[in-house]
Amino acid sequence: MHKIIPVSRPRITTADAKSVYKVVKKGWVSSSGEEIINFEKKFAKLLGRKFAATVSNGTAALEIALKILNLKHNSEVIIPTFNIISAALAVVKNNLKPVLVDSCLVSWNMCLKDFEKKITKKTKAVIVTHTYGFPCDMDEIIKICRKNKIIIIEDAAEMVGQTYKGRPCGSFGEISIVSLYANKHITTGEGGMILTNKRKIHEKACSLRNLSFGTKNRFNHDDIGWNYRFTNMQAALGLSQLKRIKKIIAAKREIGEYYYNQLKNNNKIILHPPTLNNEKNIYWIFGVVMKKNKIKKKDVIKKLLKMGIQCRDFFWPMHQQKVFIKSKIFKKEIFPVAEFLSKNGFYIPTGINIAKKEMKYIADSINSIVK
Q1: Where does 245-369 sit in CATH, by number?
Q2: CB 318 within 8 A of CB 83
């Protein structure tokens, strides 16, 4: 059995560790401290926003974002079916109705034709998720949303460092969110961020993440909030990593482009290219989609694992999730692109600690199996 090459290995440097240790020594280990304030300010600046609020994870950020909108019970919120379950959970937990749209086979992002078809008088918001590598077509999405008075929540969980027409992903929504999970470009282990340009939204986010303590009497609470706080230790780690964000993105793109060049001539698979519509792929992950042929995805993944290469399936679509089928949240619909991607797509190791010889071994292994 080969030593396993994991799909992601976060790079925690000595400088990162020293930053956290310094905070621990000072005793500022909980959800107060100057590191949190500085991290939020620098993150807001990086993404071109006026305000940023740290939270415990990206899912928490989505839940809070929807709660802030204060939408009428059972209002419709459009989300891509090809997505992590977090968006659907946030909609359901806020007593709203999720409406699903299919994906685009080229970008793997939300299909805008399907988006327009699903808009009704009850549609009040859309969660726009930039998926895996390329940004969504924000110009067209904004145009559609303005026409129909739809609020944009921008899910840039995987996109820190990515841009759309030179503008940072995470800067487009009325509210935007990112994730700081271990496999993200900037990681604090767990964590997330809520970003906006409106002070009232920011203040509400800060309240909701912290149990909505009372403004006059602290223990006379103002709203139904959450304990979704972020720690000063995490902020110290995040601040240290922000210093090298450009190097991290350059490394991810170098990894993605290497894989692409090694695998692009394999006519049994579909790959995301390095560029699409003049936008560079940020390669948060490197995805491989099996074409319809005799060898199945699950067999490829099994063989790669035996060779010491860990892979991971693509997102499983929301309309096929056990929990939602059981609760009958969605009507029976077919989403051919999302179903194809989920059934046939997987991703391979792309952590920035990966060695060139490991990448070559992975690419050669895929080409030897899929032929």
Answers
A1: 3.90.1150.10
A2: yes
